[in-house]
């Protein structure tokens, strides 16, 4: 290889790839993203603005119609509830994982990752059996005397939030675990030497340093929850309609592609703005739980 070819593919120090080589290696990834994401979204946005003629009426329906506005608000509120529940449930698990060692750490890690190997549909169907009138939850509540008759658990927002939190919980645990594992143990020892109690050490040392992991996990869970379809469709009621289910109805039943595309456009704009806000608030490496 001559020096000209070497300078094309390698950095001047001879140990790092050049920008051209990096771009060449990443080109298949960019091609896939363009094919399966950018092009379909672009087509939907085009339909929303130019079908059957150039107009903003489809977006005006989303904003001005109170029915669709409530669907958007309900979707965001459900995503907020799911994210909050995942933080409350996921932080203790992530903290225990970061402190566990050996077989115990491996067992907890398997329990966290194992649900990702099963279908979302299967996990949602399991919750539908648990929440039905004669299901395990109602039977247990009646057995211990907390209720005298079966509660309406299925086809409610509570069922949707609980099931979605169960599905998305690993996406909260793993970023928090990464942030907690990157905290040096010397920090805790230094706090103990200075007379801090375990609770104060947690509040003033561990929790602030774990915030990047909490932020990244919250972003992953919240954005994923916004577009959830299977769980709200199976466990929710028509009164608890979410935007993904509404888009499906507009496409399959009403055959109103322009309006469905406008709904997708509004959701895409909201997600993009939220991602930009997070990227400005936290650097990407901090968002992924890395410590300086």
UniProtKB/TrEMBL annotation:
User: Keyword tRNA-binding on this protein?
Assistant: no
Q: Where is the major localization of this protein?
A: membrane
- State which residue ranges cross the membrane: 20-42, 76-97, 104-130, 159-180, 201-230, 257-278
Q: Where in the cell is it found?
A: Cell membrane
Q: Does the keyword Membrane apply?
A: yes
Keywords in UniProt for this one? Cell membrane, Membrane, Transmembrane, Transmembrane helix, Transport
Q: How does the protein's chain sit in the membrane according to the entry?
A: Multi-pass membrane protein
- Record domain ABC transmembrane type-1: where: 72-278
* PANTHER family documented for this protein: ABC TRANSPORTER PERMEASE PROTEIN, INNER MEMBRANE ABC TRANSPORTER PERMEASE PROTEIN YDCU-RELATED-RELATED
Family statement:
Belongs to the binding-protein-dependent transport system permease family. CysTW subfamily.
Name of the featured protein? ABC transporter permease
- Origin species, per record, is Rhizobium puerariae
